[in-house]
Fold:
Amino acid sequence: MGDNTRVCRKPVDSKEVGLAFGLIFGKYFFNSHHLHYGYWTDDVPVSITNLPRAQEQYSDFIISHIPLGVKTILDVGCGAGALARKLTGKQYRVDAVSPCAILAAEARSILGDKCHIYETKFEQLDTDKKYDLIIFSESFQYIDIGRVFEQALRFLNKGGHILICDFFKTEAKGESSLGGGHRLTEFYETLKRYPLIVATDIDITKQTAPNIALVDDMLQNFGRPVWNLLFDYVGGRHPLLFKLINWKLKKKIEKINRKYFSGSRNSQNFQLFKSYRLVLCKSNPI
Structure:
């Protein structure tokens, strides 16, 4: 007989669930460990089958902006280890940070002993090691902006660099169904308080917006039909339960419909409400 004992686990953050789902989806359908956006160029048609290629281009884009002379790198929010593996393949010495046990385990499985993974939040990282470059690839938005630069500077070698590739909130008017990201104005204001010089600042919103078009297409042509089918099934088989659910969870259901199935999560709104940027900063110790 199997062991049906349930083990009490600590609560799992919803972001971790989303990333773990993304990993399972990518591995099963594309044999890919990438969890970040794709970087879409004119020669790559926007389609779900081309997503792995666009994600590889995203990693290549980051690597192309690593300054000369960099030898050691800290990859903050390493996901499943795809970027770190690519970096070690180019002879960089890489360590990584991951607060998610599921993703950290996956990263260890593909990196082996090539990379030490700190299984902690970046804000809580404590090590004597220092690095030539710290990379935040779609992880910057999850870190306290009031603490991130002070913490990063602790682990930078003299004259080291910080590379951020992530999206930020713009000052566009109106309500956006697209969450995430620090305010871009706050980001620039915060930078001014630290001994950092912006060496590169590139807007890649146009090249990353097609990812949202793919998500919207999946929501409209897969997510919404499945959602409606579920409601039709429950309503037909259990009408009283259906009425209770609609009454009890009315506001949450309306929010889900508005956020995911209204068609507002599209590339046009992404380009309006978000600014996706690659920002490279050099430390300028006084």
User: Anything to note?
Assistant: Residues 17-204+275-283 form a domain with the Rossmann fold fold (CATH 3.40.50.150). The chain has two domains: 17-204+275-283, 210-260.
